[in-house]
Amino acid sequence: MKSYNVKCLGCGAILNDDSSQLGYVKKYDVNKTKYCQRCFNLIYYQKLDNSNLSLTTIENNYKQLDFSKGLYIFHILDVLNLDKSIFLDLLPFQQNLCFVVNKMDCLPKKYNAKLTNEFITKTIESYGFDNPKILYTSKNNNSSLKRLYQKISMVNKQKLKAIFVGQTNVGKSSLINGIFKVNKLQPELTISPYVNTTINLKKIKIDKNEIIDTPGFLSPTNITNYLSDANIKKISNWKNHKPINFFILPNQTLMFSGLGYLSYLDGIKTTFTFYFSNEINIKRMKTINADKNLAQAQTNNTEVSYLDQANHEFINHEFKLDPNKKHNISIEGLGLISLNKGIKLITIRIRKNVGVNLNKYAII
Description:
about 375 residues, alpha+beta, 6-stranded mixed beta sheet, 5-stranded antiparallel beta sheet, 7 helices
């Protein structure tokens, strides 16, 4: 294998001439070649080939990092999966750590910013982080991107290297591309809804400042582990997103495409709000019909459904709730459900190994 000792601008792999390796290029031109074949296909054909990717490679790249030496950590979190996107391994490095709560544009246009900030802060503190520094961002909000870039500039002036870390698909590369744009520069990183687009550490220069982008850690309980690329793209479509409200009674069920359902078992007539992709089809039905309808939805090619349908198991997650409080439940990789007051008991039925989490605090 011939290595060209140059990293792909998109994913960070070392460019080379071996088609069985990450970073492969058909023909290398020192003046023109910026992307490997994998990233080229992703940019121009929306196809991502991870056949040569080993998650061990990504883990080994992380092991190279020593967070105690010269790094300032920007820990990117997904506002719709807050509790489960926090890395506890970063607890020893709180002095040089800023939480970046991303995808804020997925929340309603009108929400109580003061209360949301209070409950997000309490959530982070509940995991042992003291007086956390927090920025709120969206790739579509230029003001938030400018604030983030100002923080990066300040860190660089202190002779520290800014490093972005977080789970897969929390939006690290999208934020960096957004920073390019607000600085009137051409975005460099390949981004997609698919998992593990970034596979290696990458140093990125923006004006006089430098950012280290890292691969995302893929949680084994993320629903994207069990979906095709086409369905991952569907559940990640947040363009023109609007929350969907349902005002329902006990013994009614809300099914989300062929992926699972929520059954309301005890409480008063109240509101459930779904923060899911526009392409998730949510249907109301009687609870006694839920299993039959879920089985039918899985065989319907127009619905979002799991890979290898014949060999997976569905399980129930039961939640007994305080009817005097609002609650948020996150389904990892899918989105968030906001439950209004008055609810005593629900179950969520979904594929085994998909994470379903009752958040410590209801942020919306």
